[in-house]
Amino acid sequence: MDRQTLDMEGARQGEVSLATLQLGDDTIAIRRIATMSIQDHKFKPWDTDANRKIQGVYATSCVAMLFFGLVGIAWWFFASGQSSGVIALFIGGFLSLIGVALGVRAALLVAKLRKTEPYYSLVIGSSDGSKIKLVDDNRPVLEKIRDVIRYKMDTGDTETTGDFDLNLDILNLRPLKNKRPPLVPAPPAADDVQLAAGHRNAFLAVCWLMVEA
Asked: What is the model's pLDDT at position 186?
């Protein structure tokens, strides 16, 4: 049986570069992102055209087998005592059993076609009104990607980069707190300032004595 995948609902791969975001074949400048939202969805992975046709074949075959099975049983009922009636009974019973089996199979297929599975999408809207969608069945992963993009938007950061492939459960994004603040030299202590002033005064006194001599 055919099965739909999340690739049919939206992008599953992407890259965060210095100033742009690429999801699938779509690229958007991070500074042009206007909205981001995570939405809950449900989809029917088994509800495809091919599977519906298979279910239809089973249902039609079930009806046909049951019809001819009942015809055989009816023949036996009206031709009781004849050898042809006994043969019709066996054939009718066999066809009825096949029809019941096909009906059970058709019912199972209907239940499978109606089965839903949850997934989530990170919908990113740009300032020009276009939208791109990243989908996965793991909401925390989408939240982490959203937080990285929001961090870059809020701070103007151009160093946090990485890529991800949700089909393979690969999320390669640099942590947001991996940057150390620049080192600022501490101001000199008060004792050091007084000691430097004393040395300067002593040097000036020696120079003055040498000039007087």
From this structure: 46
Query: What's the CA gap between 61 and 174, in Å, rounded?
Result: 58
> Model-level pTM?
0.61
Q: How far is CA 40 from CA 108, 118, 134, 155, in A?
A: 27, 7, 12, 28
pLDDT number for residue 207: 59
Residue (of 43, 37, 31) closest to 131 by Cα position: 37
Tokens of 32: 């042009």
Q: Which residues of the chain have pLDDT under 50?
A: 178-184, 186, 193
Q: Which residue has the tokens 């640099």?
A: 174
CA angle 19, 169, 171 (to 5 degrees): 30
Report the alpha-carbon distance of residue 137 to residue 40 in Å, rounded: 10
Buried b (16+ CB within 10 A) or exposed e, 62-78: beebbebbeebbebbee
